[in-house]
């Protein structure tokens, strides 16, 4: 196991509760229900996550719509690329962690996760 893999497992996957992000806030499911995310290769518990339902989806859609008519709408066409480039920078900065996270979650080979992330992002 690489030091990066160990760091990611210790940071992301200790079986702890990992809330979902809706409207800029980390929240539990309105129902308080949770799901266990299991590493299919080892059977180890990776994390416990909210089991979002219809009310959570409605809240997320509402928050996304508010962002589009709120802060995002106030950015000029010249400012928006800077925001998107910052997001791209964050992907690049966290690339190995994203690939490893995907690998652990799906039990895929690390090289496959990197190719999948490259072709879908």
**Can you give the helix content as a percent range?**
55-70%
CATH H-level homologous superfamily name: Aldehyde Dehydrogenase, Chain A, domain 1
State the distance separating the first and last CA atoms. 26 Å
Note poorly predicted spans.
Answer: none
Mean pLDDT: 82
What oligomeric assembly is this protein in?
single chain
Number of domains: 1
**CATH C-level name:** Alpha Beta
Features:
121 residues; alpha+beta; Aldehyde Dehydrogenase, Chain A, domain 1; two-stranded antiparallel ribbon; flat
Quickly describe the structure.
With 121 residues, the protein is of the alpha+beta class. The protein has helices spanning 3-12, 54-69, 71-74, 80-93, 95-106, 110-120, and strands spanning 20-22, 25-27, 34-38, 45-50.
What features would you describe in this structure?
By secondary structure, this protein is α+β, with helices and mostly antiparallel strands. The protein has one domain (3-120): Aldehyde Dehydrogenase, Chain A, domain 1. The protein has 6 helices and 4 strands, in the order αββββααααα. Strand 3 (34-38) and strand 4 (45-50) form a beta hairpin. Helix 1 (3-12) crosses helix 5 (95-106) and helix 5 (95-106) crosses helix 6. The longest helix has 16 residues, at 54-69. The two termini are 26 Å apart.
